[in-house]
Amino acid sequence: MIKLSYSNPILCRPADTVIVLDFETTGLSPTQGDRAIEIGAVMLKDGKVVDRFQQLMNPGFRISGFIESYTGISNAMLADAPSCEEVMAQFADFIGDYNLVAHNASFDQRFLDAELKRINCHYLGQFACSMLIARRLYQAAPNHKLGSLVSYKNIQHDGVFHRALADSEMTASLWLAMLEDLQQDYQLHSPDFGLLQSIAKQTKANINQYLQRQG
DNA sequence: TGCCAGGCCCTCTTTAGGGCCTT
């Protein structure tokens, strides 16, 4: 994969390509010893999935029964999986310096940063959070969990939840739905990564006024 | 059995508290 270096990571990075990713982990906090057990990601280019990445990884210790039940990933499945270090090195090559998207991105960013730090690797892409943007665009949704938003937007899925690739595919579909809604509802002809990032930072009260100004 | 984190947002706020969301 060609790696590009620019002085402005948001404006100069290829705006038509983003990586949508999702981690399954042993718990909620890498600072408390939790590790990644699966990474899934899709590459979106010009609104289409052009590449995928999915890999289980062995965290080096047994995962809890809660996580086995929650994700469907068992200790037996992880026993023969490659190490986190091996998988994350491959994943770092996959994401390159592209911009990144995740649902509740602060969670995935913490694990991405922690796992890449262990192998002395880093990335230059910027993160956008589909949950924060959905909170602005879909204020009538019952809540802003990924599964709820998938139902709210009538996004097709195969019924698999809490697996890394399945969740990243659904997040990618949600991302594209938000782009489409911005084009249709606010006549934004070319909503890009930077605009979606800025939408997340607007207040709930002024989001419509902000979008109309953008249009 | 129930809790463990962290960032963001909203409001009955700003010298704060609590809910949401992720595994």
UniProtKB/TrEMBL annotation:
<keyword id="KW-0808">Transferase</keyword>
<dbReference type="GO" id="GO:0003677">
    <property type="term" value="F:DNA binding"/>
</dbReference>
<keyword id="KW-0548">Nucleotidyltransferase</keyword>
<dbReference type="InterPro" id="IPR036397">
    <property type="entry name" value="RNaseH_sf"/>
</dbReference>
<feature type="domain" description="Exonuclease">
    <location>
        <begin position="17"/>
        <end position="184"/>
    </location>
</feature>
<dbReference type="GO" id="GO:0045004">
    <property type="term" value="P:DNA replication proofreading"/>
</dbReference>
<dbReference type="InterPro" id="IPR006054">
    <property type="entry name" value="DnaQ"/>
</dbReference>
<dbReference type="InterPro" id="IPR013520">
    <property type="entry name" value="Ribonucl_H"/>
</dbReference>
<dbReference type="GO" id="GO:0003887">
    <property type="term" value="F:DNA-directed DNA polymerase activity"/>
</dbReference>
<dbReference type="InterPro" id="IPR012337">
    <property type="entry name" value="RNaseH-like_sf"/>
</dbReference>
<keyword id="KW-0269">Exonuclease</keyword>
<dbReference type="GO" id="GO:0005829">
    <property type="term" value="C:cytosol"/>
</dbReference>
<dbReference type="Pfam" id="PF00929">
    <property type="entry name" value="RNase_T"/>
</dbReference>
<protein>
    <recommendedName>
        <fullName>DNA-directed DNA polymerase</fullName>
        <ecNumber>2.7.7.7</ecNumber>
    </recommendedName>
</protein>
<dbReference type="GO" id="GO:0008408">
    <property type="term" value="F:3'-5' exonuclease activity"/>
</dbReference>
<comment type="function">
    <text>DNA polymerase III is a complex, multichain enzyme responsible for most of the replicative synthesis in bacteria. The epsilon subunit contain the editing function and is a proofreading 3'-5' exonuclease.</text>
</comment>
<comment type="subunit">
    <text>DNA polymerase III contains a core (composed of alpha, epsilon and theta chains) that associates with a tau subunit. This core dimerizes to form the POLIII' complex. PolIII' associates with the gamma complex (composed of gamma, delta, delta', psi and chi chains) and with the beta chain to form the complete DNA polymerase III complex.</text>
</comment>
<keyword id="KW-0540">Nuclease</keyword>
<keyword id="KW-0378">Hydrolase</keyword>
